[in-house]
Write a structure and sequence with these properties.
By secondary structure, the chain is of the alpha/beta class. It is built from 4 helices and 8 strands, in the order βαββαβββαβαβ. β2 and β3 form a beta hairpin.
Length: 150
């Protein structure tokens, strides 16, 4: 699942992938935006919101430069958006577009049992809010700001 820009930067061939336009609200209260994405064939029927979430996960992964990673095709409160492997160990990635309730964020922070959790968002205010919440829960979180249009 990539945009054309990501495919070029990550050297992902697009010839075998279907092209799809998705329309999403990139943050609560924001305008609807249209993106051209190139999902793997198995993901082509996913909802626009799910595909956008995956595009942001790919962008976060590209910025972190892990040696290996996996993105589960279905998420949930107890499933992170990506598992990352680095030379120094493993980490988890959660992508937050601002649509999660406080209860959902607390559930995710409690469920992810790791010393290294990256929390990616397109908005600085959201990252600050999550960091404050994580501190109150005693959970280590590393913030990662990703652009909303990739």
């Amino acid at each position: 699942m990539v945009t054309a820009r990501q495919a070029k930067r990550l050297r992902v061939p697009l010839a075998e992938r279907p092209e799809r336009l998705i329309e999403v609200v990139t943050y609560p209260g924001g305008p609807r935006e249209v993106f051209r994405v190139y999902p793997e064939a198995a993901l082509a029927a996913y909802s626009d919101a799910h595909l956008y979430h995956m595009v942001l996960a790919v962008e976060a992964i590209a910025r972190l430069h892990p040696t290996a990673w996996s993105i589960p095709h279905r998420g949930g409160l107890t499933i992170p958006d990506a598992h990352l492997l680095f030379p120094w160990g493993e980490a988890l990635l959660e992508v937050d577009t601002g649509h999660y309730s406080i209860e959902a964020v607390v559930a995710k922070l409690r469920a992810f049992r790791t010393d290294r959790l990256y929390w990616a968002s397109t908005r600085r205010e959201r990252l600050k809010w999550v960091l404050d919440l994580a501190r109150k829960l005693g959970k280590p979180v590393t913030p990662l700001l990703v652009p909303p249009v990739v």
